[in-house]
């Protein structure tokens, strides 16, 4: 078994995270959807913490809107970029830390906590629960916690079923056991969940689920087709449709990124 720190930090040392939410239509839809739900639950003058802030695309935007923002990032390379991006912005504080141990942050401090990224890379239940408990701890009673996670079936379709060059058999062995139960282990790098499985995990932590949201629909697959038609000209209309239906249960499994909204 690999070491989580080496695997995750090694990946983000090579990957250009700062371009992910701007470099494609899919990324832009994910960003617009995410910001829509943040603003839905974050009131004027309230405090927000982003755990797994990456290079700060969301945190910096919220700080520039005037919110009091605290950002925590695990990856060494992303944290260095986050620090640079936050320079000169008085209402953002940045910390280098792990979602499973937020000892630098006080109890009951934040109106909204964003757990965006850590659940992609937590492979055993103890760590998953610790991250959820830490997010719960730092959030005010009645505050909201928004948690990003990956549906395992989207990983299968995007990385293996859709890709004729991928090792189809390896995809099943990586994500499922012999009886097709979902597996979580470090060598996956990105770990996926059954939606019901993840919702039960969150409820077990003591957080109360409000809704589960498709952040980007099936765009990761659709944008690879020759006839893909979503562009700047029709993006506004698509977003009206997407935001109207992104909580629809039957559409969740085809998304590459999901957001669970919970109340503390």
Brief descriptors of the model:
7 strands, 264 residues, alpha/beta, globular, single chain
Describe this structure in words.
The protein has 264 residues and is of the alpha/beta class. Helices cover 39% and strands 17% of the residues. The protein contains ten helices and seven strands. The protein has a seven-stranded mixed beta sheet, with helices on both faces. Strand 2, helix 4 and strand 3 (92-96) form a beta-alpha-beta unit. Helix 2 packs across helix 10 and helix 6 runs antiparallel to helix 7. The longest helix is centred in the N-terminal third of the chain and has 17 residues, at 25-41. The model has no long low-confidence stretch (mean pLDDT 92).
Report the strand count.
Answer: 7
Q: Strand fraction band? A: 15-25%
What is the strand arrangement across the widest sheet? 3-2-1-4-5-7-6
Please state the structural category.
alpha/beta
Give the overall shape: globular
Ranges where pLDDT stays below 50 over 5 or more residues in a row are: none
Mean pLDDT reading: 92
User: Terminal Cα separation, in Å?
Assistant: 34 Å
């Amino acid at each position: 078994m690999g070491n989580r720190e080496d695997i995750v930090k090694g990946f983000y040392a090579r990957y250009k995270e700062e371009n992910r939410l701007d470099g494609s239509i899919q990324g832009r839809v994910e960003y617009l959807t995410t910001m829509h739900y943040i603003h839905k639950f974050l009131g004027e003058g309230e405090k927000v913490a982003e755990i797994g802030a990456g290079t700060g695309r969301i945190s910096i935007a919220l700080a520039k809107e005037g919110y009091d923002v605290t950002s925590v990032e695990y990856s060494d390379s992303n944290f260095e970029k986050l620090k640079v991006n936050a320079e000169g912005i008085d209402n953002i504080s940045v910390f280098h830390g792990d979602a499973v141990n937020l000892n630098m942050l006080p109890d009951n401090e934040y109106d909204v906590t964003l757990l965006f990224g850590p659940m992609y890379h937590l492979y055993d239940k103890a760590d998953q629960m610790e991250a959820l408990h830490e997010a719960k701890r730092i959030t005010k009673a009645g505050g909201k916690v928004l948690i990003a996670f990956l549906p395992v079936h989207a990983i299968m379709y995007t990385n293996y079923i859709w890709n004729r060059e991928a090792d189809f058999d390896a995809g099943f062995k990586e994500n499922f056991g012999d009886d097709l139960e979902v597996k979580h282990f470090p060598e996956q790098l990105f770990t996926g969940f059954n939606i019901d499985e993840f919702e039960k995990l969150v409820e077990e932590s003591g957080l109360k689920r409000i809704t589960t949201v498709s952040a980007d629909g099936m765009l990761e697959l659709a944008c690879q087709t020759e006839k893909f038609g979503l562009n700047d000209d029709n993006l506004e209309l698509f977003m009206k449709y997407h935001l109207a239906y992104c909580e629809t249960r039957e559409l969740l499994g085809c998304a590459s990124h999901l957001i669970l909204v919970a109340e503390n």
